[in-house]
Design brief:
5-stranded antiparallel sheet; Pseudouridine synthase; Structural Genomics Hypothetical 15.5 Kd Protein In mrcA-pckA Intergenic Region, Chain A; alpha+beta; about 375 residues; globular
């Protein structure tokens, strides 16, 4: 077992930003910038308007980072800020390293002082964009798809990447519930960019309010599959640990005694020696990053999770982990029109199955019977 790493004391200062502006993330725990993820190397784009800069972030490159190009390191440090804003700042000469202007080709080294003036994000837009999406269920009231990893759920400020909303506005010819608001029509729940699997959107305002109520009142049943680090000693359990923003790294979530209630049931479905396991997680609440935070709190962070995990030790060399290996497998709702239960299932994608097969081939596989 690799010795625990020392936590770097990196602080990011924000100057002159608006109250709603994003807070940058100090990533002293990473030993190197996260590698470029294959599925998002060239995401599709939609036009955004030019906007003026009004945020300035200052930091110093942590000692654990390896020398790398400015665009890669800054995008990692400013997690929570869209890549397009970082790239635009570099293109416009709004980044300084040790007091000197820098561009995307500038190599940053540990200890370098970095100042980034970010263009203010434009209002997110939702317009039809033709995308190839796997529709799992569709009628006049709702639509559910198997969201691929790497695709945003809805437009976000400062990003020109397309999203599920862009694609479904095209697919449904604009028939998504306007009650969700202009940037997020029809959106009743969300999946993180790297999470794959079932996501449902409302096509009418009546369906929108009915589905939002189900998620708010916790009657919607969500089941996720996760490949995690190390095999748990127990085969099942309940994680009842409140979650809120991390006290110092505000773009992360953390277990906190003064946080908001968060409960997740979990059970082991497969073990791969002592090195990894397949877990089915059923969240009863909907906190940001809930499953990722809870499984990390349990001592079994999700493989590929470079925010809440630890994947720079030799034991992980060669493991095919292109993303956070979390998949929304099953969603059960009450149909907003008929009142009957509807269960929507999306089988894991190829990258998830490839890692399962790799783990089984390397460490062996033991399967545990599960209900249903």
């Amino acid at each position: 077992m690799a010795p625990p790493r020392k936590r770097a004391k990196t602080q990011l200062k924000r100057i002159g930003s608006r109250p709603q502006a994003r807070t940058a993330r100090a990533l002293g725990r990473k030993s190197r910038p996260a590698p470029r993820v294959p599925y998002s190397s060239r995401p599709a784009k939609v036009p955004t308007e030019e906007v003026r800069p009004d945020e300035i972030f200052k930091t110093r490159i942590p000692g654990e980072f390896e020398p790398a190009r400015a665009d890669k390191i800054i995008a990692t440090l400013l997690d929570g800020v869209s890549r397009s804003r970082v790239q635009k700042a570099l293109d416009l000469g709004m980044v300084k390293v040790n007091g000197q202007p820098a561009d995307c080709r500038t190599v940053l080294n540990p200890g370098d002082a970095v100042e980034v003036a970010l263009p203010s994000p434009g209002e997110p837009t939702a317009r039809p964009v033709k995308l190839r999406l796997e529709v799992l269920l569709e009628d006049a009231h709702l639509i559910a798809i198997n969201k691929p990893a790497g695709l945003l759920t809805h437009p976000v400020q400062g990003s020109d990447e397309v999203s599920v909303v862009h694609g479904l506005l095209h697919h449904t010819k604009g028939k998504l519930a306007p009650a969700g608001g202009a940037p997020r029509p029809g959106v009743v729940h969300r999946l993180d960019r790297e999470t794959s699997g079932v996501i449902a959107l409302a096509k009418t305002d009546k369906a929108y309010h009915a589905l939002v109520t189900q998620f708010t009142e916790r009657t919607a049943q969500k089941e996720y599959l996760a490949l995690v680090d190390k095999a748990p000693r127990l085969l099942s359990g309940v994680i009842d640990a409140a979650i809120d923003r991390h006290r110092t790294v505000r773009v992360r979530m953390a277990v906190r005694e003064d946080g908001r209630e968060a409960v997740t049931d979990w059970r082991v479905e497969e073990k791969y020696g002592e090195q990894a396991a397949l877990i089915r997680a059923c969240p009863h609440t909907g906190r940001t990053h809930q499953i990722r935070v809870h499984l990390a709190h349990l001592g079994h962070p999700i493989l590929g999770d470079r925010t809440y995990g630890k994947f720079d030790v030799p034991a992980f060399t060669g493991w095919p982990m292109p993303r956070v290996m979390l998949h929304a497998h099953r969603l059960t709702l009450t149909h907003p029109q008929t009142g009957k239960p509807v269960t929507i299932v999306a089988e894991p994608p190829k990258d998830f199955l490839d890692l399962q097969a790799w783990l089984a081939g390397r460490f062996g596989r033991r399967t545990y019977s599960t209900p249903g």
